[in-house]
Amino acid sequence: MHPQTLEGGFANPAADAAHAFRSVMEAVARPGTIHEITGARPPAPLSPAAGAVLLTLCDTDTPLYLAGAADCDAVRAWLAFHTGAPLAGPSDCMFALGTWDALLPLSAYPKGSPEYPDRSATLIVEAPALSDEGAVLQGPGIRDTARLSLPDIGAFRQNRALFPLGLDFLFTCDGRIAALPRATRVAAPAEMAEAR
Amino acid sequence: MTDQAYNFAYLDEQTKRMIRRAILKGLAIPGYQVPFASREMPMPYGWGTGGVQVSAAVLTPDDRFKVIDQGADDTTNAVSIRSFFERTAGVATTTVTTEATVIQTRHRIPEVPLAEGQILVYQVPIPEPLRFLEPRESETRKMHSLEEYGLMHVKLYEDIARHGHIATSYAYPVKVEGRYVMDPSPIPKFDNPKLADCPAIQLFGAGREQRIYALPPYTQVVSLDFEDHPFEASRADHPCGLCGAVDSYLDEVITDDAGGRMFVCSDTDYCETRQAAGHRGKDAA
User: Fold this and answer.
1) Reduced to 3 states, what is the DSSP secondary structure of residue A185?
2) Has residue B7 been placed in a domain?
3) Which one of B8, B18, B29, B140 makes the best mutation probe of the A interface by having the most chain A beta carbons within 10 Å?
4) Does ipTM top 0.85?
5) How many other CB atoms are found less than 10 A from the CB of residue B40?
């Protein structure tokens, strides 16, 4: 076993997880805002932010899908030791982790049922960059509009059309996190300019 | 000082993760009731077990915690929940609304407008707004999924037919973002307008009924009504006897057995702040 497998978890699990959760919750409650999230040092290619999200939300109750490069021995061993989350395919997962391209197609994930829309997957998208420019967001949690660098626009618009079903997205980059829950309406900047 | 016999904020980490996942799904689907595996807490059902579990899942050691029970900081329920988290989480506590980062509440929203960065946690007895109209969970769940809320309007209409106005005065149903009808917990309907466009995060926990739901900041929340009987936020038509406020929600207090009574702010922090600023009502000592 590689010694790094045992390292990189929360130094103070209860307090670190509480702080990390507040970052995740603020991100989900205010789509488009970017928050610091620290405390985890996962093996490559995971970002510290993605590591902290996994440590905060995943355990033996949450099937996890590792997509693309994230599905490697170092990550599997680290997650097995620190979270115990069972690995699953995209159709049975509660959480999925990977880059945007690796996670596609979105139709593969559970999007909830009309009576239980909460039984849908949360996708943790490893983003190369995260900034408050790009797509225009509107909806719950946003006073007027917000901006967030999204990997796509049409896919999120289709996801919104399923509401109250749909997927929820967390974007992680280095030690930062942003979110796009299903209730958020997404538009391209040009469309917003036309609407005015 | 923290009681070291317990994990931070009493609950074990796996339970907190489960509650945290439910809170995130609740925020993603505003107004939808997310089932969660409610735990036994060291207090009876009906005393805020849902609110306490939600508070335990969101508190960090840096928070400043406030608890109100019908607006008051000094009632049994508020005092014991506050000391519970002082002991098990070691968090700082306060009675001042503007200083608190997490506020757990039973049946009121503070008078002072909440700000970004604050979290309001409601204790909810019956989370299902349709429950007294349709007792079967399987049916109410179907009604929510089909957006079939006609029964609720019939109930409000029957109020009008019987009383001449909508007599529902607390737990007044609201519609969230044009989709889910939600029970705002038994807050007076005076507080309903404060649910909408609130800068704070609002979380609702029902322990016995095992449901969590949420309103993200700036969410559209509309109290159900009719065009010819619009929603009206009502309050007793008196100034506060202690601080003279005319814009706060009032409790009626019986003072003797000869019909004596006074009206006082239900929000003790609001009332005391006003008295400290020199405002006086007619009953002030």
Assistant:
1) strand
2) no
3) B29
4) yes
5) 8
